[in-house]
Amino acid sequence: MKVIGVGCGPGMLTQEAIGEIGKARRIYGSRRAVEMAKEFIPQGCEVRGIEDYAKVRELPDDAVILSTGDPMLAGLGYPGAKIMPGISSMQVAFARLCLPLARAAAVTAHGSGHERAVAEAIDELKRGKIVFIIADPGFDVQGLAECMGQRGLNCKIAICEDLGYGSERIEIGTTESPPEARSRLFSIVAWRRERSCSSRGS
Hints:
Elements lengths: L1 E4 L9 H9 L2 E4 L1 H7 L8 E3 L14 E5 L14 E3 L4 H9 L6 E6 L4 H13 L3 E6 L5 H10 L4 E7 L7 E6 L11 E7 L10
Parallel strand pairs: 1-4, 1-5, 2-3, 2-4, 6-7
Antiparallel strand pairs: 7-10, 8-9, 8-10
C-alpha cells in the first residue's frame, strides 16, 4: 500500500508521486485530494472515496491512497505503508514568511485538543521555537494570543489561508493585535518578535 501526499494545494505533487499515481490501478482519497491529482490518474484506474479512515489498513495491498498535505504531518500516514510526501502547508508557510524550518515546532490543533495545543505552542515558544499550528475551523486565534500575552510572550502571529490556491492569503499580526481567519482552511505560525528572522516577519 502506498500513501501519497498531494501537497497543500494545486501543483505541489512531487515527480515521484506523479509517477506512482500514473501506475496506479486503485486510488482512494478525499474529494479534494483526488481533484488535485486527477490530471495524473490513468484511464481505467479505479477511484474511490474513503468513507471510514479507521479501516484504511483493510484496503487492498496495491491501493494508492491520496492524502492532502504531508501524510506524516497533518494528513494520513502510518508505519508500514510506503509514504511519499507532498509539499506541506508548513513548508509553504515558512517559505512565504522567510522563516527557517530548522527552528520549527509543529503542533496539531484538530478536533477537541485546542487547550492542549495552545499549551504546547506556548512551551515551544518559550524554548525559542517557531511554532506551526495545524488548526481546524474552530480554533480560537484570539484566545491563543491572549494566553501568549498572559505568559509574557511578545510574538508575531501569522494566519496562512488556502496556501497554494488562488485565494491564498497571509496576514501577520501580534500578540496584542492578532490576525483573524477568514477561511476554513488555515494554519498559524507564531514566533517571538525579538527572535524574528526576516524582514517580512520582523
